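Because discrete structure vocabularies remain unfamiliar, we turn briefly to a single example record, giving the amino acid sequence and backbone structure tokens:
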Amino acid sequence: MDITSLVTPLQRKLTCLDYHSPSASFTDHAQLKSLVIWLEDQKIRHYTIDERTPLRDETGDNWNKVFEKYLTDMQCPFSFDSAPTPCLHWLIDEAVRCEFTDVSKSHKSLCSGLCRRDNKKPNGALPNAALNISSSDPVLKRGVEALAKILQITSHVDPTVLLAACRLVIEEKLSEEALKRAKDEADKGSSPSSRKPTHHDISPKQCGFDLGDPVLGEAAKVLRLLHIRELRELQTKINELIVAIQNITADPKTDSSLGKVGR
């Protein structure tokens, strides 16, 4: 089989690898030798530097023997003499695999470095100090109750429940989005003192099940509405995650010579 019969796939692969002459004719011995040396030096690196010397120095039939030995050491399932095209494709595919492995390792290293940086504690900080705090600690109780009073939250006997309520109020009222929304309303001329609290009539709402007690039924409606809001927030976060992943993975490159868009 003639190598030139599959020149387009070869060009695409070599372009992805940033080879300097992807359109070269590899029926030419010099071009083939240059490609093999470049793949081994830059991408595959199966041999040590000293072991690559014969690939560079030998010529003619001697180089062909060295190349066959190289393919054997690489465990290539093809022989270049009998199947040059599949052999060359296999070698370039191996280079692509090595390139992908190198890139994925660099990304993992970057992510782990960011995680270590985010988890780095300031000098003098006590490790796991928060984990050593008990919910029965009187200092914790007084601090949570003081915070709840500032946020105008009804007190609760369990400080962990009260702290969770404080967190919800802070996220709802004091988050960056909430403060921006309040600023926008203030810019429109609506002052906080003039705004009336919003009341929602839930009496027409259906709970979906009967508890046999009107008071419990109203409480169940409130819990269901809160649960629906949490589900919406979760869906929003999932959508944001999908968009963030697409910004990384969806990066098409246009090659006008191919007449199509793709990697």
About this structure: The radius of gyration is 33 Å. Residues 205-246 form one domain. The first strand starts at residue 254 and ends at 255. The beta strands are 254-255, 260-261.
